[in-house]
Design a protein that fits this description.
Layout (H helix, E strand, L loop, with lengths): L5 H11 L6 E3 L7 E2 L5 E11 L11 H18 L3 E11 L5 H17 L4 E8 L4 E12 L14 E5 L4 H11 L8 H4 L5 H9 L5 E5 L3 H12 L2 E5 L7 E2 L4 E2 L2 H6 L5 E6 L6 E2 L2 E10 L4 E4 L5 E3 L12
Parallel strand pairs: 4-5, 9-15
Antiparallel strand pairs: 1-2, 3-6, 4-6, 7-12, 7-14, 8-12, 9-14, 10-11, 13-14, 15-16
Helix pairs in contact: 2-3, 2-6
The site of adenosine-5'-diphosphate has 13 residues, from helix 1, strand 4 and strand 5.
Length: about 325
C-alpha cells in the first residue's frame, strides 16, 4: 500500500470516477447498485492482472498496465456481443509501490473507462505481501437470449478474425532483447477491445460462436471447436499478420498463430460477413468442419495439424 493508505486511496479513486447510466450508486457503499435494463441478461467477467505474469514494472509503464487491465475485461464482454455497464477493481499493492505508480495506473484504467463509457463502480484495496496484483470485474448486458456463446458453431461455418494477429506477442519477444518504443507496438501497449464489433455482430445474428483472442488464435480456436463439437481448417495464407516495429514488419506466422493478448475477436458465421465492421477489417481465415481437430492448409497445398500452442506469458523457450 502506498504511503497515503487505503481510505485516502479509495477517496482519490472516488473523486476521479464518473458515474454512468447503469450505476444507481457506486463507490462508497457496501455494494454498488446497478440498473439492469428490462429484458436484458447480465454478463460478468473477472480477470487477473498479475505482476511478472501479465506485466513487468520495468517493461510496462503504469498507464499501460491500467489500460490493459480494463481491456481484458472489456474484451470478454465484447466476445459475448455485450455492452459493458460497470467495472470493479480489486487491487493489492506492496508497501514499496509509489503513489505516482498508482496514480498513473488509475489514469490508464480510467482512460479506458471513459473511452468505453464504463464507470468504475467499486472494488477492493489491500496491501500485498509482495508485488502488484489486480483483478478487474466487468459487468455487461445483452438482450435476453442473445449472448454469443463459444458453443454455437456448426460444420461449414466460415471462421473470421477482426484486425490483425501476433502484434502483442511480437512486442514481448522484442522487450526481451531490449528497449521498445511503445508507439511502434500499439497492439501490445494500447490494445483496443472490439466492443462495437461484437455488439454489431450480435445485433445482426451474424456470429454463430465467438471468443476473444487472449491466449492466441490456435488455443482460442480450440475452445470454440471443443465447445461447439466441430473441427477447423485454417488457411495459413489468409491469416492477417500484424505489422509492428520500426520499420514496420509483418510478424512471424508462429506469433500470429499462437501469440496471445491481441484482444481481437474470433468468430464463426454461416452468413455473409462484411469486410469491415465499425471500421475494423474482418478476415475470413477458414471454416469449421464436421470432423474434429484443427488443420492448417499451407500455401503450397500441403496440410498439417494445428496444435493449440497459445502464448504463455514470459515463458522462455
Ligand atoms: P467494505 O469493507 O465494505 O468492502 P471498503 O472500505 O473496502 O468497503 O470500500 C469502500 C468503498 O470503496 C466500496 O464502495 C468499494 O467498492 C470502493 N472501493 C474500494 N477499493 C476500490 C478500488 N480499488 N477501486 C474502486 N472502488 C473501490
Ligand atoms: Mg472492501
Amino acid at each position: 500500500m502506498p504511503p497515503v493508505g487505503e481510505k485516502s486511496l479509495i477517496d482519490q479513486i472516488r473523486r476521479r470516477v464518473r458515474v454512468g447510466a447503469s450505476v444507481v450508486s457506486g463507490i462508497g457503499d457496501d455494494c454498488a447498485v446497478l440498473r439492469v435494463p428490462a429484458g436484458h441478461q447480465l454478463l460478468v467477467t473477472t480477470d487477473f492482472t498479475l505482476e511478472n505474469v501479465h506485466f513487468r514494472r520495468e517493461w510496462h509503464p503504469p498507464k499501460v498496465v491500467g489500460w490493459r487491465c480494463l481491456t481484458r475485461g472489456l474484451s470478454d464482454i465484447a466476445a459475448m456481443g455485450g455492452k459493458p455497464r460497470a467495472a470493479f477493481l480489486s487491487i493489492a499493492l506492496e508497501r514499496a509501490v509509489s503513489q505516482k505508480w498508482v496514480d498513473r495506473f488509475l489514469a490508464g484504467l480510467l482512460e479506458a473507462a471513459e473511452e468505453f463509457r464504463v464507470p468504475l463502480a467499486g472494488g477492493d484495496t489491500a496491501q500485498s505481501v509482495g508485488g502488484i496484483q489486480a483483478d478487474i470485474v466487468v459487468v455487461g448486458s445483452v438482450p435476453t437470449g442473445t449472448a454469443v456463446l463459444r458453443s454455437g458453431a456448426r460444420p461449414g461455418d466460415g471462421i473470421y478474425v477482426t484486425g490483425e494477429l501476433g502484434g502483442s506477442a511480437a512486442a514481448i519477444a522484442r522487450l526481451r532483447e531490449g528497449k521498445v518504443r511503445a508507439a511502434d507496438f500499439e497492439r501490445h501497449f494500447h490494445p483496443v477491445a472490439r466492443v462495437k464489433v461484437g455488439q454489431w455482430l450480435r445485433r445482426r445474428w451474424l456470429a454463430s460462436a465467438m471468443i476473444d483472442i487472449s491466449d492466441g488464435l490456435s488455443t482460442d480456436l480450440e475452445h470454440i471447436c471443443k465447445e461447439s463439437g466441430v473441427g477447423a481448417e485454417i488457411e495459413v495464407a489468409a491469416i492477417p499478420r500484424a505489422r509492428v516495429g520500426r520499420p514496420a514488419q509483418q510478424v512471424d506466422m508462429d506469433l500470429a498463430l499462437h501469440g496471445g493478448e491481441d484482444y481481437e475477436l474470433l468468430f464463426t458465421s454461416a452468413k455473409k460477413v462484411p469486410a469491415k465492421v465499425a471500421g475494423i477489417p474482418i478476415t475470413k481465415i477458414g471454416q469449421t468442419t464436421r470432423k474434429g481437430g484443427m488443420m492448417l492448409a499451407e500455401e503450397g497445398g500441403g496440410r498439417r495439424k494445428l496444435a493449440a500452442r497459445g502464448w504463455e506469458h514470459f515463458k522462455r523457450n
